[in-house]
Amino acid sequence: MLAALALGATALPAQAIADPVAPYNAFTINGYHSLAVDPGSPGAFFWLGPPQVYQGAEVVVFHADSTRFTSYAAIISLPGQKIAPGTYPTSPYGDTPGTYGLRINFWGEECGGDQGTITVRSVTHDDEGTITSLAASYHTSGCNSRGMGSWGEIRYKSTIGYVDAAQDLVQMPGTGTGVGFGQRGMTQTVTFTGIGSDPLTFGAVSFEGVGAGSFGTEANTCTGRTLTYKQTCSVTIYSKPTLLGDQPALFKIADNGFMGFHGVAVNEYGRKTSFGNYYPNDPTRILDTRLGMGAPKGALGAQKTLSLQIPTINRATESGISAVVLNMTVTNPTSASYLTVYPSGTTRPTVSNLNFTAGWTGANSVTVPVGANGKIDIYNAGGSVDVIADMLGVYQGRDTPGIIDPGGQYQPHQTTRVVDTRDKGWGGPLPGKWSLSALVDYGKTINPHVRALAINITAVTPTSSGHLTTWNGGGPPPLASTLNYTPNSVVPNFAVVPIMYCERTPSCAGIPEISVYNGSSGTTHVVIDVLGFFDDAQMGPGFRFQPLTPTRIADTRSNLGGAGTLGPASTATLIAPAPVAVDETGALVANITGVNNGNGGTYLTAWAAGTARPTASNLNLEPREVRPNAAFVLLGPGNKYNVYNAGSNVDVIVDVAGRFDYFPYPLSPGVTASSAPAAIKPLSPGRRTSTASSNAVPDLRRGLRQLPAGDLAWPSRASILSRVGYAYPFIGAAGSAGLAHAEDIRADGGRYGRARGQLVAGGGRLAATGDRRPSHVAGRRPRGQRPRGGRGRARVAAAATAVCQIAGTASGGESPAGRGLRRNVPCL
Fold first, then answer.
1. Is residue 790 exposed (0-12), middle (13-18) or buried (19+ Cβ within 10 Å)?
2. Which residues have CB under 8 Å from 748's CB, separation 6+?
3. Which residues contact 200 (CB under 8 A, 6 or more apart)?
4. What is the pTM of this model?
5. What's the average model confidence in pLDDT over 327-354?
6. Per-residue pLDDT tens for 19-53?
7. What's the per-residue H, E or C state across 200-220?
8. Among 317, 413, 493, 558, which residue's CB has the most CB atoms within a 10 Å radius?
9. 398 burial via Cβ count (<10 Å: 0-12, 13-18, 19+)
10. Is 447 helix (H, G, I), strand (E, B) or coil?
């Protein structure tokens, strides 16, 4: 029928004018398409088919053609009536009672749909009943996209104006490979062009649908703008998936047109990503100027810079890294100076990473963005100095599809002291060539996800010069140091240490564990504070690293950051400025330098504003000392943080190389929100609070757990000292018993060890099977007895009841290379 209506039709030539003028002729369609024919269209041609009757209803077919495409609209009135002003529901042929018939066709594509509405604004008939003018607005469900359907304006010789705009983008399907969750994907710009006789004014933008949270806008020149004919404005839309899988949504910008908005159907596929995640690595030496490793042999001279290639030794480096975590050590400096470490190929920033005096040997943890060439630069300000760098891990720098190992997110928590050998339960300082292992229990739900611990480790009052090495305890200590110290000093350093899981006994199985080795010949107390952990990216929300150009954000010497010199027992509240910190930022990756101007020692503690000061320090300073230490500094409301100075007068300098931004990663299948440890999540811009459950904080305060009387299980947290023997700290249910120092553990093969243990349940004693004989250490052994490999057993007894038995292999003298290997010892 519709084809027949075209026969014998009367054509109306287009008016050769630039802007629409009355009487108006136009046909527009929006939604799945954005097309328009008006007098400004090339070859525009408007006409009505002859009047027809369909089942007693009036039928009119309006044609609008141009050199680009042909189109028509067929309108069918109610049965027995002519087309008249009013708003009516529609169906394809008006077959549904009470509906007008509506068919819309562009380029041969039918867009009438099953239902819709038509508003006839004006219609005139001549004496013969032929329509002479028509003004209507329509909306149908046909050619549907994100629920918009299709809508537009119809004008034929009408004096009724209209408002509309054409757009060059109606769909944004996304990338073929998808975008990593939380990462910025493709951007596309939609340009709107005014095509109405009357001005169109745009309002606010919004997104609707399942994937609404996965998109945003920028460079919006439309909101608040009024377009006249042929004027343009644009909005740039970007994707940033907040869920996994397809993220369909509808972009809408409000306007004063018939539908009240214009829209773009958008979609993006969210996939897992490792961007910003951390990949821990066993400490690996990549630079030693004493040996010519990683750089030409020889000390780094004054005002000289060396470039260090970051090797591909980690899974993430194969696809690109954003930053590397190093432990930087200086030795043999000829004068006071400092090192600045920064991305190769960039301008050297006004920051320092390690300050030192002549003859000093020391280390500091450094996180530094990597240059585009895969290198970092190390600058020495004065004198000459040997530089050593141990690589501890890297941060992923690209949103690369297909990475099997996703790395880990940072999960901060309340600073928790897990080791302090000054407490009597630890049996005294760590002996030289011995190692200490600490287990940190987050509970059965979280433990399997822990991959590395962020710690601050401090050597306290060592009796000789030496170093501490931290590692996961799986095998001998690596040939790398975490901190270096001199006698009677207090030396801290920050470290991210990979963990292993305890395997000594079923009761400690699966608990994260790290170890510390004392590389000196003397003793030293060891203090370890845990700030948080890196997970396996399978726990849901967390924090991910964003590299920054190294920037100084605080210097109390010049009031930079909002505070001056700190006096004794004083606290300064500082602000992390934008763009160093943004609304999503939960922590800064910082280097804190303390300048002690007084004659007394002191310490500094940095923590989030608005929270209680933790009972732990970030930096210890001796009189007149300048010392740095790396830190993950948590931020409070308004991106504020506090720095506390215990004594003396101290200036504080804070340099930032990156930040941790909150990442609302989706939970893995089978994981519920109640079982996932939420990190410090921003509730609103500038305000953060911990949503972690109590079991997200290590169940450990002094490295010990009180056992009930008769408990045969290994403590869930313990330390082990090893050289030729072991140390087992216990606390009895009835209170702390006296510290037992026994040198009567005899290996069956004739080797002797030394044991230190705190007895269980009070009144107990440390007994040994076999003869009570003096211990032999440092390689000395009785004549004729086996030099190593004998087996020894000892038990702890309480009230004649054995509650724990220790069995293991003791070796004579020091272990190979003097590295004090720790043995896995079951507690029966």
1. buried
2. 770, 790, 791, 792
3. 163, 164, 165, 194, 226, 227, 255, 256, 257
4. 0.66
5. 95
6. 789 999 999 999 888 888 998 888 888 999 888 88
7. EEEEEEEEECCCHHHEEEECC
8. 493
9. middle
10. helix
